[in-house]
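Side project, low priority. Logging it here so it doesn't get lost.
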Amino acid sequence: MKQKITIALSIFILILVIGLMVNDMYQNQKAPTNPYEYSLKDFKHIDESQFCYQEAEVFVPDIKKLVAIAIDQDDQLYLTGSGKVQIYNKNLELVNQFDLTKPARSIAVSTDGKIYLGISDHVEIWSQQGKLLGSWEAFAPKSIITSIAIDEESIYVADAGKKLVLKYDKDGKLLAELGAKDKLTKRLGFLIPSGYFDVAIGREGQLWAVNPGMHAFEAYDESGEMISSWHKTSMDLDGFSGCCNPSHFAMLSNGDFITSEKGLVRVKVIGPDGNVKCAVAGPEDFDEKEVGIDLAVNSNDDIFMIVPGKNEVRKFVSFD
């Protein structure tokens, strides 16, 4: 009898130990401890003291699936999306609209009022009244036109498919290919993991292009030579993170950059040296999965941005 009690007690203790081991393993699997784990919450809040712009106006245009915005020398606002172009005056009153044969991904306006659109793999030129004035041949079958910048002499086209900036004259003649990979100089070229690749004309007339995979900006002169660059990789406000940021940018009259990011969604002002100056809008102002925040600046340095997820346009003005 005593032996039976001893065996039963041993079995009970064994079952208890096994139960404790299983419970411990379950708890460890359920809530692992990672000393290197960080939270995006630490980067989603921007202190009020770091903002230099405030939202002044929001409107929802009668156009679906907003993808691009531009502003001309008379402060007219141009929007495109869902196979349509809309034109608004400086008071944000609709003055004209017209349909496109295919949806555009990018838009720019020349000083003579011509509207340049990136339509899939090629560029089209339209009048203010909605007349098709010209259509350039695609650079390559895999071209994806994501941005267009215009100066007095040339048209610069960002081709995310071929990972190049293409320089054209006003008649559509290809003059140069900028930013190609070069083994001799060990230049890596543009790293473009997704369809975001933006260009703009700087205050001194140079072309600025984003190298999104490198979190970098590169400046090119008239001959197509890179003359300067800077990059900032960081999840802090003073930098860019993720696979490909910034996604869009525009230029202020003093040469500062206005940039937008996806992933950690932010819009901010950055000086020509690459150092952040202040924030325009932060993650708390957008839906977490917002992407494609295109930007434009008027003659007063007011900032306009499209928010595709809400299909709206927001205007921000400086605190000054």
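Brief comment: The two ends are 93 Å apart (CA to CA).
Revisit when time allows.
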